[in-house]
Amino acid sequence: LGTAMVASSVVGLFQGTIASFALLAVLMPIVSGMGGNAGTQTLAVVVRALATNQLTSSNTRWMVLRELRIAAANGAMLGTLIGIGTFVIFGNRDLSIVIAAAMVINNVTAGLGGVLVPVTLDRMNVDPAVSSAVFVTTLTDTMGFFSFLGLATLWGLHG
C-alpha cells in the first residue's frame, strides 16, 4: 500500500497538467504498464541467474550494461510504435513525442531496476525472488508517471 502511495503522489504533483489536458490521464497507464512489464521480465532473468549462480559479483557490471542495452533498444522500438499509434489515433505530434520519450526513459529505468533491485537484495541476504517485484513495480510506476507527466509539463501540453 505504501509503495502505491508513492506512485500516486507523483500523479498528484501534476494535477494541473492533467486538468488542462485530460488525454494524459488516458495514456499514462500505458507508459507505467509497459515499464512494469519490462522490469518484471528483467527481474525474472536476473533472479534466475542469481539462483543458478550465473550472476556473480564478478559479472554484475556486464549484466547491468547488457540489460541497459536491451532496455534502450526495446524502449526505442516501443516508443516509436506508441508514438506513431498516438499520432494516428489522436493526431497530436507533441503528445506523440512526449509519450515516445517517456517510454524510452521508463524502459531504461525498468532494465536498470530489474537488475539492481534483486542484486542489491541478494547482497543484503534478502531473497530477491520474494521481495524484488514490489520495488521494481513501484520504480517503474513512479518513473513512468513522472517521465510522462513531467515531459508533458515541460513540453507545455494542454488541451
Fold topology:
Blueprint: H1 2-13, H2 15-20, H3 23-51, H4 60-90, H5 93-123, H6 128-155
Largest sheet: none
CATH architecture: Orthogonal Bundle
| Residue windows where pLDDT falls under 50 for at least 5 positions | none
Sheet/helix structural class:
mainly alpha
Task: Give me the Rg, rounded.
Answer: 17 Å
Helical content band: over 70%
Overall geometry: elongated
Count of DSSP H/I helices:
6
Notes on the structure:
The structure is a single chain. This protein is mainly α. It has one domain: Orthogonal Bundle (Tetracycline Repressor, domain 2), CATH 1.10.357. It has six helices and no strands. The longest helix has 31 residues. 41% of the residues are buried. The model has no long low-confidence stretch (mean pLDDT 96).
Features:
single chain; 159 residues; mainly alpha; Tetracycline Repressor, domain 2; elongated
Quick structural summary:
The chain is mainly alpha-helical and 159 residues long. The chain has helices at 2-13, 15-20, 23-51, 60-90, 93-123, 128-155.
